[in-house]
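Action item from last meeting closed. Structure (188 res):
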Protein backbone atom coordinates (compact mmCIF):
# COMPACT_ATOMS: atom_id res chain seq x y z
CA UNK A 1 0.00 0.00 0.00
CA UNK A 2 1.34 3.41 -0.91
CA UNK A 3 1.58 6.26 1.57
CA UNK A 4 -1.37 8.56 2.11
CA UNK A 5 -0.70 12.16 1.11
CA UNK A 6 -0.65 13.23 4.75
CA UNK A 7 1.92 10.61 5.76
CA UNK A 8 5.64 11.43 5.96
CA UNK A 9 6.42 9.06 3.07
CA UNK A 10 4.31 11.10 0.64
CA UNK A 11 5.71 14.39 -0.53
CA UNK A 12 5.22 16.68 -3.42
CA UNK A 13 7.78 19.22 -4.45
CA UNK A 14 8.00 21.77 -1.62
CA UNK A 15 4.55 20.62 -0.52
CA UNK A 16 2.97 22.52 -3.41
CA UNK A 17 -0.78 22.19 -3.85
CA UNK A 18 -1.50 19.27 -6.17
CA UNK A 19 -3.79 19.58 -9.16
CA UNK A 20 -5.12 16.22 -10.29
CA UNK A 21 -5.75 16.07 -14.02
CA UNK A 22 -8.21 13.62 -15.59
CA UNK A 23 -8.19 12.87 -19.32
CA UNK A 24 -8.07 10.29 -22.07
CA UNK A 25 -5.25 7.79 -22.37
CA UNK A 26 -5.93 7.61 -26.13
CA UNK A 27 -4.94 11.18 -27.07
CA UNK A 28 -1.95 11.24 -29.41
CA UNK A 29 0.89 13.73 -29.40
CA UNK A 30 -0.52 15.44 -32.51
CA UNK A 31 -4.04 15.84 -31.06
CA UNK A 32 -5.60 18.98 -29.63
CA UNK A 33 -6.35 17.36 -26.20
CA UNK A 34 -2.67 16.38 -25.89
CA UNK A 35 -1.49 19.88 -26.82
CA UNK A 36 -3.95 21.46 -24.38
CA UNK A 37 -2.93 19.11 -21.54
CA UNK A 38 0.77 19.75 -22.15
CA UNK A 39 0.10 23.50 -22.01
CA UNK A 40 -1.90 22.96 -18.81
CA UNK A 41 0.93 21.02 -17.14
CA UNK A 42 3.42 23.72 -18.06
CA UNK A 43 1.19 26.54 -16.78
CA UNK A 44 0.43 24.75 -13.51
CA UNK A 45 4.12 24.05 -12.85
CA UNK A 46 5.12 27.62 -13.65
CA UNK A 47 2.45 28.84 -11.21
CA UNK A 48 3.88 26.65 -8.42
CA UNK A 49 1.44 23.73 -8.47
CA UNK A 50 2.39 20.05 -8.52
CA UNK A 51 0.54 17.85 -11.02
CA UNK A 52 -0.97 14.40 -10.49
CA UNK A 53 -2.54 12.10 -13.04
CA UNK A 54 -3.12 8.44 -13.70
CA UNK A 55 0.47 8.38 -14.92
CA UNK A 56 0.03 6.58 -18.21
CA UNK A 57 -0.27 7.85 -21.82
CA UNK A 58 -2.39 10.37 -23.68
CA UNK A 59 -3.54 13.38 -21.67
CA UNK A 60 -1.82 11.94 -18.58
CA UNK A 61 1.48 11.88 -20.45
CA UNK A 62 0.94 15.35 -21.88
CA UNK A 63 0.20 17.05 -18.56
CA UNK A 64 3.12 15.20 -16.95
CA UNK A 65 5.43 16.23 -19.78
CA UNK A 66 4.38 19.89 -19.68
CA UNK A 67 4.85 20.08 -15.92
CA UNK A 68 8.19 18.23 -15.89
CA UNK A 69 9.62 20.30 -18.75
CA UNK A 70 8.65 23.45 -16.80
CA UNK A 71 10.45 22.19 -13.69
CA UNK A 72 7.32 21.08 -11.81
CA UNK A 73 6.70 18.05 -9.67
CA UNK A 74 4.79 15.18 -11.32
CA UNK A 75 2.95 12.44 -9.46
CA UNK A 76 1.56 9.36 -11.19
CA UNK A 77 -1.00 7.16 -9.46
CA UNK A 78 -0.67 3.70 -10.98
CA UNK A 79 -2.66 0.50 -10.60
CA UNK A 80 -0.65 -2.70 -10.20
CA UNK A 81 -3.49 -4.57 -11.93
CA UNK A 82 -2.73 -2.63 -15.16
CA UNK A 83 0.01 -3.92 -17.43
CA UNK A 84 0.97 -0.41 -18.57
CA UNK A 85 4.16 1.36 -17.56
CA UNK A 86 4.13 4.96 -16.28
CA UNK A 87 5.02 7.69 -18.73
CA UNK A 88 8.64 8.86 -18.58
CA UNK A 89 7.81 12.23 -17.01
CA UNK A 90 6.36 10.79 -13.80
CA UNK A 91 8.76 11.66 -10.98
CA UNK A 92 6.88 10.14 -8.07
CA UNK A 93 4.87 6.94 -8.33
CA UNK A 94 2.05 5.94 -6.02
CA UNK A 95 1.04 2.36 -6.71
CA UNK A 96 -2.33 1.00 -5.66
CA UNK A 97 -3.94 -2.32 -6.44
CA UNK A 98 -6.77 -1.51 -8.83
CA UNK A 99 -8.67 1.10 -10.84
CA UNK A 100 -11.07 2.02 -8.03
CA UNK A 101 -8.24 2.61 -5.55
CA UNK A 102 -6.42 4.61 -8.19
CA UNK A 103 -9.38 6.93 -8.64
CA UNK A 104 -9.83 7.34 -4.89
CA UNK A 105 -6.14 8.17 -4.47
CA UNK A 106 -6.17 10.69 -7.33
CA UNK A 107 -9.10 12.43 -5.68
CA UNK A 108 -7.59 12.21 -2.19
CA UNK A 109 -4.26 13.80 -3.12
CA UNK A 110 -5.78 16.56 -5.25
CA UNK A 111 -6.19 20.05 -3.86
CA UNK A 112 -8.00 20.81 -7.13
CA UNK A 113 -9.00 18.96 -10.29
CA UNK A 114 -9.15 19.46 -14.05
CA UNK A 115 -11.18 17.28 -16.41
CA UNK A 116 -9.74 17.43 -19.92
CA UNK A 117 -11.51 15.92 -22.93
CA UNK A 118 -11.83 12.16 -22.57
CA UNK A 119 -14.07 9.13 -22.70
CA UNK A 120 -16.04 7.10 -20.20
CA UNK A 121 -13.11 6.80 -17.78
CA UNK A 122 -12.71 10.57 -17.63
CA UNK A 123 -16.48 10.93 -17.26
CA UNK A 124 -16.37 8.62 -14.24
CA UNK A 125 -13.49 10.59 -12.70
CA UNK A 126 -15.30 13.89 -13.19
CA UNK A 127 -18.57 12.47 -11.87
CA UNK A 128 -17.04 10.89 -8.77
CA UNK A 129 -15.11 14.03 -7.77
CA UNK A 130 -18.20 16.17 -8.43
CA UNK A 131 -20.55 13.85 -6.51
CA UNK A 132 -18.20 13.56 -3.53
CA UNK A 133 -18.12 17.35 -3.19
CA UNK A 134 -21.82 17.74 -3.97
CA UNK A 135 -22.69 15.24 -1.21
CA UNK A 136 -20.07 16.78 1.11
CA UNK A 137 -18.13 13.52 1.36
CA UNK A 138 -15.14 15.56 0.26
CA UNK A 139 -14.53 19.20 1.19
CA UNK A 140 -15.22 21.62 -1.65
CA UNK A 141 -12.18 21.99 -3.90
CA UNK A 142 -11.87 23.66 -7.29
CA UNK A 143 -13.06 21.33 -10.05
CA UNK A 144 -12.53 22.67 -13.57
CA UNK A 145 -13.68 21.31 -16.92
CA UNK A 146 -11.29 22.53 -19.58
CA UNK A 147 -12.60 23.54 -22.99
CA UNK A 148 -15.98 22.93 -24.57
CA UNK A 149 -15.96 19.13 -24.40
CA UNK A 150 -17.72 18.69 -21.01
CA UNK A 151 -19.87 21.86 -21.18
CA UNK A 152 -23.06 20.08 -22.42
CA UNK A 153 -22.71 17.41 -19.73
CA UNK A 154 -22.20 19.95 -16.95
CA UNK A 155 -25.08 22.11 -18.14
CA UNK A 156 -27.41 19.10 -18.40
CA UNK A 157 -26.55 17.89 -14.88
CA UNK A 158 -26.91 21.36 -13.39
CA UNK A 159 -30.30 21.76 -15.09
CA UNK A 160 -31.50 18.37 -13.84
CA UNK A 161 -30.14 18.97 -10.31
CA UNK A 162 -29.90 22.69 -9.48
CA UNK A 163 -28.27 21.85 -6.12
CA UNK A 164 -25.23 20.61 -8.06
CA UNK A 165 -24.61 24.06 -9.50
CA UNK A 166 -21.48 25.94 -8.53
CA UNK A 167 -19.30 22.89 -7.93
CA UNK A 168 -17.81 22.73 -11.43
CA UNK A 169 -16.02 25.68 -13.03
CA UNK A 170 -16.02 25.86 -16.81
CA UNK A 171 -12.78 27.22 -18.28
CA UNK A 172 -12.47 27.91 -21.99
CA UNK A 173 -8.66 28.08 -21.87
CA UNK A 174 -5.63 27.09 -19.84
CA UNK A 175 -5.19 30.66 -18.49
CA UNK A 176 -8.85 30.64 -17.36
CA UNK A 177 -8.38 27.30 -15.59
CA UNK A 178 -5.18 28.52 -13.96
CA UNK A 179 -6.99 31.62 -12.73
CA UNK A 180 -9.53 29.44 -10.88
CA UNK A 181 -6.69 27.71 -9.02
CA UNK A 182 -4.85 30.96 -8.32
CA UNK A 183 -8.00 32.42 -6.79
CA UNK A 184 -8.85 29.36 -4.72
CA UNK A 185 -5.47 27.86 -3.84
CA UNK A 186 -2.18 29.44 -2.86
CA UNK A 187 0.98 27.74 -4.12
CA UNK A 188 3.68 27.63 -1.46
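Sequence:
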Amino acid sequence: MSPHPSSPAFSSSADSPIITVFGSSRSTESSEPYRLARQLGEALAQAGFAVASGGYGGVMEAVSRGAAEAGGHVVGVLASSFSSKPNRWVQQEIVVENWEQRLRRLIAIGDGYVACPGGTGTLVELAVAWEMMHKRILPRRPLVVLGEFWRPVVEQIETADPKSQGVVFQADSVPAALEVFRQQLSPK
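Note appended to the action item: The longest strand covers residues 74-79.
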